[in-house]
Design goal:
The protein is an all-alpha fold. The chain has six helices and no strands.
């Protein structure tokens, strides 16, 4: 198999950052452990997600969307990607 194009890493980093920003916004003043319990994930995973350092599987993303009662469009800014 060949190497992935360099922009693949940039896209992944951008999506991780967008997810992290959305999670921080939704958490508001709730403590990290309390919000992690609400989401059904560990505090350390939530912390890494908020920092954009945690790779998230599609299954985990689907789980988070269900727990937050939101859609992909709520989390990810699709207008930014359509400009590329």
């Amino acid at each position: 198999m060949g190497r992935l194009p360099p922009q693949t890493g940039e896209v992944a980093a951008s999506l991780q950052a967008q997810l992290g920003k959305y999670l921080r916004k939704r958490r508001r003043d709730m403590t990290l452990p309390a919000f992690a319990r609400k989401l059904g994930i560990s505090s350390s995973s939530l912390h890494r997600m908020e920092l954009g350092e945690q790779n998230v599987t599609l299954r985990t993303l689907e789980h988070l969307l269900k727990r937050l009662k939101c859609s992909l469009n709520d989390v990810f800014d699709t207008s930014e990607r359509s400009k590329r």
